[in-house]
């Protein structure tokens, strides 16, 4: 008798029927196990397969023997990067649709096996989603090459969408595009990069019609504190997009007045094709966007690695990826850049036209451009045909610049511009387009963005040693080559100071952000200068104590070049200080500041700066600081700083003298 809890035996214990049943159970079990394995490898959208299941298992076994999931090409295509705090890898793609395995974001092997299984999916329906062979065409082509797919057992399907795009781009080469920094847009303060797909059928004169691949955050035009917070901590989605190059030139060169550098790369056609196939895979995929590291320039490097996996460009960037540094990383690869071309912005062209005219002619051009003088005033003033041409062309450039600055509609339909064009066409003089020389130092050839300094000094009867570190980027007297003239952009500049007489080490300052923009004004272009900084700094009080004080500072002003090597600037500014030494722990002040920057020789620059602030809330004091600082370049990566200053904060006046050795890295 059979027991519910004891041992139970099947009937037919020693009969042929038992043997048959056992064989049937084994066969059915194996079939069910294979089906279960296949279903776990396939997403729900591709669970149904065609073709040969045995062939799928053969391919997966071959991939296992070759350990293809560990191959550099697979790691690049899946954007796998080593985990920071544990073993293994994780993909930087944050879109679930990019993965065919539920664990594909962190399991390269599972994703590869699921990818192979997806290639056996039925043909895509007309008007429906792409077949996985097309949706993930770079993966398919690489696995086909590595495993030698048999088309009789794994049918290959046409990819009309990709083929059409490839025909439209007609690729021959790739050019890395670098629009310079734009301080008026927080997302573009460090510059930007994109890739241009150079067509076989176009010349250098028609490159504006080529397509570009761009990566950017979808910010919904959000600004303010939430914009900065989301940008720092991945609160926005970033994605790739394609647009004609003339659209990008109009945006960056004309509307934002950013000079553009074009670096032609030496990628072969096969490498360009691999890059485009991977870009196709990313067309509807999103990443979490981080301003400091996983930004536009960082993600474009991943496309170059897909083209040539041996590059290892991303390995050079950890906590931050400055666009100029990514361009430098590309330039440092031997023979990867064949040429570099400078495309001046509308503002640069306008300034060059202005420099080529006498002040009186500049005034006439501005008067015409502002619609305060009739166009025929150039002829009524008895100007030569050549001068008339120069004045009218400057007036046209000025009208276009004004429209771009005011972010209005384009100037093409402005009657004023039509009248200027008509008058210019009646002069039998060839175009007077100025020749703008390419700057001697490219952005990739400028000083490295990080800087360390060791300094010795004497301040308020105390000797000190100071060690400082600035992760990014540039101050007003750093070597200027490759950077925006008159711009300072520094983040997280920190300094610690050691006093030997006290045997004391303490934090001296932490500048979270320090931005200064001093664009040059002239008769036609009159931009305002501005500055903003926030952080912590020690300040001297009446009891000779120097506590850490929080500060926030903003100023607006003007700046002029009074020679080719000297600039003068003036600001009206306000400052808020936070400390328990003040009433209500807050002090507010306002005042004036100004300075002069002089380039004495190419490696030697000097800045004189003075500021006075009157505090009326929280503390009634008049403070001042007057400083003279010199910067001397020793090598492209090292330099000296010598500084003398006299200061009065919230205690007695004191003098500070110091000298420092700088290393750019």
Report on the architecture of this protein:
The protein has helices at 16-41, 53-66, 72-77, 108-118, 132-135, 137-147, 160-169, 225-232, 245-255, 269-281, 296-307, 323-331, 346-355, 359-369, 377-380, 385-405, 415-425; strands at residues 80-82, 89-91, 171-179, 194-199, 211-217, 236-244, 260-265, 286-289, 337-343, 451-459, 462-470, 472-474, 487-499, 504-517, 529-538, 548-563, 566-578, 586-601, 604-617, 621-635, 638-648, 654-664. With 665 residues, the chain is an alpha+beta fold. The protein has 4 domains: 16-147, no CATH class; 165-343, endopeptidase fold (from Nostoc punctiforme) (Alpha-Beta Complex), CATH 3.90.1720; 357-425, no CATH class; 446-664, Beta Barrel (Porin), CATH 2.40.160.40. The strands form 3 sheets. The protein has a 12-stranded antiparallel barrel. Helix 10 (269-281) crosses helix 11 (296-307), helix 11 (296-307) runs parallel beside helix 12 and helix 16 (385-405) packs antiparallel against helix 17 (415-425).
Helix content: 25-40%
Largest sheet: 12 strands, antiparallel, barrel
Structural class: alpha+beta
Annotated CATH architecture of the largest domain? Beta Barrel
Give the N-to-C terminal Cα separation: 85 Å
Count of alpha and pi helical runs: 17
**Poorly predicted spans:** 1-49
Based on DSSP secondary structure assignment, what is the total number of beta strands?
22
Shape: globular
- The radius of gyration over CA amounts to 33 Å
The CATH C-level name of the largest domain is Mainly Beta
In which order are the strands of the major sheet placed? 10-11-13-14-15-16-17-18-19-20-21-22
